[in-house]
TrEMBL record:
Belongs to the cytidine and deoxycytidylate deaminase family. It is an enzyme of class 3 (hydrolase). It holds the Pfam family dCMP_cyt_deam_1. GO terms for molecular function: cytidine deaminase activity. Gene3D superfamilies: Cytidine Deaminase, domain 2. Keywords: Hydrolase. The keyword Hydrolase applies. It comes from Pedobacter panaciterrae. Its EC number is 3.5.4.5. This is Cytidine deaminase. Residues 21-158 form the CMP/dCMP-type deaminase domain.
Length: 162
């Protein structure tokens, strides 16, 4: 038996003003994206803002449906918008934030496994790591560079690629 360990790296910031101006701007854009969330079932709004290599900013928010599994997370709404509208651009950074009308969110909300898998494939496709900021409004920010730090056992199968 071999015991093996992953080391994951991330940074934490106490508040927005500890971030660079461009990271602050991206977090505020994620907050702006909350406005378009359609989340009548969970009352949990999620906003995502993506900064692209062509300087374009793309926003996304969670979109729910009465057939619950038909809804989609904010991160994937934003990432697939990039894939559809700016297929040549690379995603350099993304910020994610959340807000609930039922409870106070006291720490950054991190992305679900399905969104991490999609982020990982964007990295693979663009051959460039993504910086991810998980922003708690009025609180802490977690910053991660590279999805390997969030999903160490990512699913990859090169033989499925064309
Ligand atoms: N949600 C996201 O938008 N991103 C995630 O990474 C996890 C969850 C959304 C889906 C659903 O609309 C609501 O949050 C509650 O799960």
């Amino acid at each position: 038996m071999d015991q093996k360990n992953f080391v994951v790296s991330y940074q934490t910031f106490k508040s927005l003003n500890e971030l660079s101006a461009s990271d602050q701007e991206l977090c505020l854009k994620a907050e702006e994206a909350l406005k378009s969330s359609y989340s009548p079932y969970s009352n949990f709004k999620v906003g995502a803002a993506l900064k692209l290599s062509n300087k374009q900013l793309v926003l996304g928010s969670n979109q729910e449906n009465v057939a619950y599994p038909s809804g989609l997370c904010a991160e994937r709404v934003a990432l697939f918008t990039v894939g559809a509208a700016y297929p040549e651009a690379a995603v350099q950074a993304m910020a994610i934030t959340a807000k609930s009308s039922n409870f106070v969110i006291q720490k950054p909300v991190t992305s679900c496994g399905a969104c991490l898998q999609v982020m990982a494939e964007f990295e693979q496709k663009q051959k460039q790591e993504i910086e991810v900021l998980f922003y708690c409004i009025g609180g802490e920010i977690i910053k991660v560079k590279g999805i390997k730090n969030l999903l160490p056992f990512v699913f990859v199968e090169e033989r499925l690629e064309r």
